[in-house]
Amino acid sequence: MSEPDFNQLSQDEQRAVAERLHKIAESGWKPFWCADPNCDGNPHWLTEEDADGTEVNVFVGADDIAGPNGEPLSGIIYEAPDGEWYVPERGVPDDGDEPVGRAVLNPKWAHNHARRDQRLPSWVKPWTLFIMSGRGSGKTRTGVEFVTLCARKGLDGAILGRRGTELVNTHVAELINNAHPEFVPIHYASKDILVWPNGATTYLFSAEKPENIRSVNLSYAWVDEAAFMDEIETAWMNLKLATRVKSPGNPIHMLITSTPTGSKWVQKMEDDDNVEVRRVSTYANRANLDPDWIEELEKEYEGTRMGRQELHGEVLRDVEGALWNDDLFNHLRLSDPVDFLNFVEGLDDRVVAVDPAGSKGKRSDETGIMAVGAHHFDDDGTPLPGSRFYTLGDATIKGSPAEWAEQTYRLARLVKATRIVAEKNFGGDMVKQVLLDYATIHPEKARNDDGDNMADMVKVVHAVQGKETRAEAVVGKYEQGRVTHVTSTTAFGDFSKLEREQVTWVPKNRGGRSPSPNRIDALVWAVKALETKVKHATSMASGAAVLRKLKSSPMGSVSGNGSIPMSRPAGPLGRKVVNWPNGGIKKKGRAA
Ligand SMILES: [Zn+2]
To answer: What is the CATH classification number for the domain harbouring 377?
Structure first.
């Protein structure tokens, strides 16, 4: 197809072309898929060849408002002390960092567009793609662009949504919103179809009526929020039966998008070798999300097992025979370090337990290091009928003895531990020796804030009952609501890994095969140590009072099912680094 030469057109034709272009520009329509298969979806920077023929970025000064030909610009780029360039997330740079300038953007790709994880697999092969994603990760947009692309190719297909209203309010609305002004579909509500300008038809099916998916011939289908459909088994089977048209060059393509659940159907799809599963975290799309909204989500989920599903798109499987399940977890989130410190000091006792890697009967190479605190008394100093337990930190680490010894002392210092315990039976003496040796070599690192040598608080404990019996006893405390996971912004305040182990480990006496995970063993030891040594209790400030104070405080909140505020973790929420689509930032050619 050759492009007509604009200058060869008549005046009327030229005017018509200009009007079309104007209309497209006016509509705000922006393309979604760029040509770079490795694109991260960020705006492309404009490049030019320098004197020796190298492609370099075009920069202007920080005060400029447009490129040399009126092109749009990136935000102001700053240079960090380590030489890295970044555009501060809310425009505010780190203290003392100097502005470098702004990048000139390629006008066609000056907006956020398809990321690598939003790209479709090769068109020429048939595929079923399941995008399991955290909330707000951009899956709806992926589906909308997929349907639009199929329609452009003249294919008939279907969208399966949870409810008719949702199909109209979300899917139809988004398809029309994102449509090219010359390729807008018409929605025939009475027929539940969309008809595209080229005659291609998109059927709208609701999972409430899976029997409707019949007597249609489809080439593609998009199933959205599949994990939340009661009738998904039937609907999916009917969809598969209906997708039978194969036009040359257009094999069948099925796209499933959903925040996953542990439902049987989702697990079946995850285990199906013919299904390509992609996990996309909420953070992948943070450039397009309201930071406050992300913060809210994090308050709710980060650091908890549910967060793996809601934020990271991981499937949570209910494991038959596992001792714990989701309902057993209570969370308290302390996002302010001061709140955490107050809470820790308000406890009657705090213990760190170490379960070393490589001990007998272990498959794990992690050393479990858990801190747990307890309330033994109420406000008046009367012993509670049953002590209450709070996980304070998970410092579990894969590392050398020196590394886990250091980690143990870090955690013990943080939670103001009164004891560090390790089991005698399996390497207990070894653990003690490692901790003592480490303290001798690095006395500073083994000292707590009161100046005590924490090596003096290392205790070896003896197992009387079997491992599984001890674990079951701790589960009993969870069932009584006496255990709370205290997630925090400290280095050790994330319990999602512990919770994952808790809900997936099946003890041998319940038909399991794997040995108990080190985190659980450490947790069980810590609880046991707290229970048997109530005499260590230092009933100073009442923990219950601290809890009550927190309940009324806007900084921390307490709830039965884990509504817990937390500030941003360092990893995915650090400063935003400017990404150069071709890999790395080239400083050459920067403007002063
Ligand atoms: Zn791109």
So the answer is: 3.30.420
Whether residues 83 and 126 share a domain: the answer is no
Give the domain range for residue 269.
Answer: 116-288
Residue 287 CA, ligand 1 centroid: distance in Å = 14
Ligand 1: centre distance to CA 44 (Å): 6
Residues 6+ apart with CB under 8 A from 498: 370, 391, 394, 396, 485, 519, 520, 523
Q: Residues 87-124: pLDDT tens digits?
A: 887 778 888 888 989 999 999 999 999 999 999 999 99
Q: How far is the CA of 57 from the centre of ligand 1 (A)?
A: 15
- Output the CA 62–ligand 1 centroid distance in Å: 24
For residues 342 and 462, state if they share a domain: yes
Q: Does a structural domain hold residue 496? A: yes
Ligand 1 center–CA 529 separation, angstroms: 56
Our separate counts of H helices and E strands in the chain read 16, 22
Q: How far is the centre of ligand 1, averaged over its atoms, from the C-alpha of 581 (Å)?
A: 7
CA of 111 to the centre of ligand 1 (A): 9
Kindly state whether residue 297 falls inside one of the protein's structural domains.
Answer: no
Q: Are 415 and 520 in contact (CB under 8 A)?
A: no
Going from the Cα of 112 to the center of ligand 1, the distance in angstroms, rounded, reads 8
β-strand partners of 128: 254, 275
Q: How far is the CA of 43 from the centre of ligand 1 (A)?
A: 7
Residue 192 has pLDDT above 90, yes or no: yes
- Ligand 1 centroid to Cα of residue 110, in Å, is 9
Verify that 126 and 106 share a domain, yes or no. Answer: no
Going from the Cα of 113 to the center of ligand 1, the distance in angstroms, rounded, reads 6
Residue-wise pLDDT tens digits, 529-559:
998 755 444 333 344 444 444 443 333 333 3
* Dihedral pair phi/psi, residue 141, rounded to 5°: -65, -40
In a domain? residue 321 = no
Alpha-carbon span 164 to 162, nearest angstrom: 7
> What is d(CA 106, CA 45) in angstroms, rounded to the nearest whole number?
5
